[in-house]
């Protein structure tokens, strides 16, 4: 997987550009004063499927899905 390192300022100023990169499968590490502060990664297909099911369950029942049911922990 490709990774891009970008400053917080550049990330804020050009968010659509970085959003498109993530959608294409690129991970982005955001740094502030040369220190990594967070990482954005593309959602994997399995997680995406579980999240979609949970959201549909919530819409159907207007009930929260337990964390461990969603993430299998």
Tell me what the structure shows.
There is one protein chain. The chain is α+β, with helices and mostly antiparallel strands and 73 residues long. It folds into two domains: 3-40; 43-73. 51% of the residues lie in helices and 23% in strands. The chain is built from four helices and three strands, in the order βααββαα. The protein has helices spanning 8-13, 15-23, 45-61, 67-71, and strands at 3-7, 27-32, 35-40. A three-stranded mixed beta sheet has the order 1-2-3. A hairpin with a 2-residue loop joins strand 2 (27-32) and strand 3 (35-40). The two termini are 26 Å apart. 0% of the residues are buried.
Q: Uncertain segments of ≥5 residues (pLDDT<50)?
A: none
The N- to C-terminal Cα distance equals 26 Å
Report mean pLDDT, rounded to a whole number: 84
Largest sheet: 3 strands, mixed
Reading side by side through the largest sheet, how are the strands ordered?
1-2-3
- Helices, by number, come to 4
Helix-and-strand structural type? alpha+beta
What pattern of helices and strands is seen along the backbone?
EHHEEHH
Number of strands: 3
Fold topology:
Elements: E1 3-7, H1 8-13, H2 15-23, E2 27-32, E3 35-40, H3 45-61, H4 67-71
Parallel strand pairs: 1-2
Antiparallel strand pairs: 2-3
Offer a quick outline of the entry.
This protein is an alpha+beta fold and 73 residues long. 51% of the residues lie in helices and 23% in strands.
Key features?
alpha+beta; 4 helices; elongated; 2 domains; 3-stranded mixed β-sheet; 3 strands; 73 residues
């Amino acid at each position: 997987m490709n990774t891009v390192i970008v400053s917080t300022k550049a990330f804020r100023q050009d968010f659509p550009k970085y959003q498109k990169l993530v959608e294409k499968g690129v991970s982005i590490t955001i740094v502030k004063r040369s220190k990594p502060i967070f990482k954005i990664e593309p959602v994997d297909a399995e997680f995406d499927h579980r999240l979609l099911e949970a959201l549909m369950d919530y819409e159907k029942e207007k009930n929260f899905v337990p964390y461990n049911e969603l993430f299998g922990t």
